[in-house]
Amino acid sequence: MRNIKRMLGPAIAAIMTLSALALLGVLMTPHWQVEAETGHIRVTERKTAISSRLGRTATEGTYATKQTRVKVDLGGGVSVNAIVRQPEGVRGPVPACLFIHGAGTGKAAEVYGDLAGALASAGITTLVPDKRLDTYTTFHRDYKAMADDYGRSFDLLRSWPGVDPARVGVYAESEGTWISSVMTASRKEVAYSIMTSPPVYPGRSQMAMAATAYLDRVGAPDGIRAVIPKLLGLDLSVLGLEYADFPALSYLDGLTQPLLVNFGTEDVSMPIEQGARELIEKAGEAGNTNVTLRYYPTNHQMRTGSSLSKPGLPLEPHYTHDLEDWINGVAMGTDAHQWATPMVAGSQPAQRFAAPEEMGPGLITSLRTLLLLMAGGPVLLLAALIGSVCLGLAGHGRGKSEGKIKPDRTSPGFGRSMQARLWILGIGSLAVLALTCLYAVMVVGHALSLNGLSPTERTSWPALKVAAVILALILASVLADAISGIFPTHARAMGGKGQVAGPGHWITFALTAAGSALILVVLAFWGLFTI
């Protein structure tokens, strides 16, 4: 009977601790998750060629081109460099195209040269400005202000000699399509819009889809993928990432211009089917059915040779020809019913995950709170370590001055195995937290390089979960023994004695238990107690 009573307390403590951590894991999980994409687009025409029924258009290489470097005044004493490429020997005013940077580019001399040069040789004047970088950082981006800046370049292009101001449009890639959406919504003089690899949805939503797709591609454990909604549902204002919630969809109501949308089927970061349907529907609601959609067997940058965006990769060979034929076709006045080629064509897309339309946090609502929790545990354990060292030094001093005295139940110290368990709990908690963070970084590295995880790397996640459970059981045992020691009658009934004696040891115990508990809460956030 005494053995049963002795086991009952730790068993109850273990059940309560594991249940609490599992419940916290559930409460920290948002009500939404990244679902599978179910609305697929069926492509029946594999050829991406574009032609108008109104007549033939100039082909690539028809004209020699001239390149001019200019400065664009953005106001307030700020200007950016830009490159104008224009066809030579063409008769009459020509259409023109302004290029808008995506997230990874900034200098006109380093990007779009192949695209802009090809378009110019087909009779289309192009302007590629530098991105304004003094107001553009990792943590701050104002897409409306950026649209105003690009508007200065747009106005310059419309006034350029030989350009027809009524036939000037915009070409944007990736993040740049948010900027071009602002421009098309506010500037009705934009004659057409080309969106290549557009995220379509707000950044937070698109990133949730992209991160899940990348992790799925490399075979990341379900537990790691389940963290994505928890992280991307947080308030990120501590980093100043307000642009993650840029209301991208609201600007699509102004898509009244002819629209060309291009996606690469090897691009797992964009909503290549869901986003395309959204653009077609938004344009249709605005009365615009002149939307052409093309899919290429390419990466995010319309280049072949790798699913990743790497320097030096060649453009898809038909891409620039299709751009030129579409722009020149629009310049001729081609409407939705006057294209000789299908509105949707190219490689068959296969988007696996959908960008969530509604997002929100779980029990932990902000990144600031999560970071405080992650830092709080190690800080408390550091304080416990300092306290333990101080207690050891104090005890050593007492031993020298008083001689060897056999300790009794009231002597300051830890009973039986308490000290060993506290050391295991503290060091183990820090180790598992560090290993979890390192594992997450390792998985992210695999995802960014699209290298699948090895079998050993996959089994490391269950090993971390087992380690976390063991730590929770140790925490439960030390709490049960410490509590039993507070009540001497109960302690004697349990066949033991107090496990902690002395104020200094109680403080060290409390710091160790609290620090480890905080780390276990963080591990619950990371899904290590999820069944």
TrEMBL record:
Per the UniProt record, which residue ranges are transmembrane?
370-394, 422-446, 466-487, 507-529
Q: Superkingdom, according to UniProt? A: Bacteria
What molecular function does GO assign, one term?
Answer: hydrolase activity
Q: Does the keyword Hydrolase apply?
A: yes
**Keywords from the UniProt entry:** Hydrolase, Membrane, Transmembrane, Transmembrane helix
The UniProt entry, under SUPFAM superfamilies, shows:
alpha/beta-Hydrolases
Full protein name: Alpha/beta hydrolase
Q: Which InterPro entries match?
A: AB_hydrolase_Est10, AB_hydrolase_fold
